[in-house]
Amino acid sequence: LASKAHANHKSVIQLSDHVTVGGKDLLIVGGPCTVENLAQMEAVASRLLTAPIQALRGGVYKPRTSPYAFQGMGLEGLEILATVRQRYHLPVVTEVMAISQIEEIAAQADMLQIGSRNMQNYDLLKALGQAGKPILLKRGLSATIEEFVLAAEYILAHGNPNVVLCERGIRSFDTYTRNVLDLGAVAALRQITHLPIIVDPSHAAGKRELVADLARAAIACGADGLIIECHPEPEQSVSDARQALSLEEMAELVASLKPIAVAV
Ligand code: PEP
Ligand code: MN
């Protein structure tokens, strides 16, 4: 179902009345790694609404490497997302970590993110077939392109045709960047599948000074959009502070994408 042979045109997926991904407009998703409080999310939405970004991100259930690290605000964070979503008419994307969270998150969010660590959680993927919302499927930390496409296939095969792929960097021997952004995968996926493909340069880079260049390269490579971490006070981020852009940096980056998108 994911293969290009199955659909002879590219899938365009609807996030809201006005926002799509996979069509001619880029989807730029911006926001913090973690929802921390209402003021933080208001600051992001109000500054970036006109940048413009098309959707907001923010995790409320966080897959943290250490069990002692902040695990996310949960339902309280979801309420904050819902408030900002309504106030600014911006679709929101947030991560679902467990089958038990699907219903509550699908009731408030416009797209459900499946994180890298859950890309091969097949029971979760099957359950997403009935989620009734588009899915943003992130590539596993060390998943091959074929494993990635087959993970999407699980969701499609179980009844949800609206899957957006996200390349977010893969593990390698080099620790200078957090992960290695695989733009080769973006080029390949565009040939293999009709599903939209977006790129997360933040988790690939791990360092804010590398994010903008990777983002521009991704668009030049034909990605349908980007998901980027930014924060009103990047250094104060409760998670992934080192890779967070300031809101000004984010706005500048968004502006710099336009000529590249036109040229592709
Ligand atoms: C995130 O988007 O904050 C995240 C945890 O991403 P990934 O699953 O790609 O590590
Ligand atoms: Mn993060």
Write a brief caption for the model.
This protein has 264 residues and is of the alpha/beta class.
Structural class: alpha/beta
**Uncertain spans, ≥5 residues at pLDDT below 50?**
none
What is the general shape?
globular
H/E series, N to C?
EEEHEHEHEHEHEHEHHEH
What would you note in describing this structure?
The protein has a single domain (13-263), classed as Aldolase class I (TIM Barrel, Alpha-Beta Barrel). Helix 6 links the parallel strand 8 and strand 9. The strands form two sheets. An eight-stranded parallel beta barrel has the order 3-4-5-6-7-8-9-10, surrounded by five helices. The mean pLDDT is 97. The chain contains nine helices and ten strands. It has helices at residues 38-48, 75-88, 102-106, 122-128, 145-157, 183-192, 201-205, 208-220, 247-263, and strands at 13-14, 20-21, 27-31, 55-57, 92-95, 111-114, 135-138, 163-167, 197-199, 225-229. The chain has 264 residues and is an alpha/beta fold. Residues 33, 203, 229, 239-240 line the site of manganese (II) ion.
Summarize the helices and strands and which ones pair or pack.
Elements: E1 13-14, E2 20-21, E3 27-31, H1 38-48, E4 55-57, H2 75-88, E5 92-95, H3 102-106, E6 111-114, H4 122-128, E7 135-138, H5 145-157, E8 163-167, H6 183-192, E9 197-199, H7 201-205, H8 208-220, E10 225-229, H9 247-263
Parallel strand pairs: 3-4, 3-10, 4-5, 5-6, 6-7, 7-8, 8-9, 9-10
Antiparallel strand pairs: 1-2
Helix pairs in contact: 1-2, 4-5, 8-9
The site of phosphoenolpyruvate (PEP) has 10 residues, from loops.
GO molecular function, one term: 3-deoxy-7-phosphoheptulonate synthase activity
InterPro entries: Aldolase_TIM (IPR013785), Class-I_DAHP_synthase (IPR052899), DAHP1/KDSA (IPR006218), DAHP_syn_2 (IPR006268)
EC number: 2.5.1.54
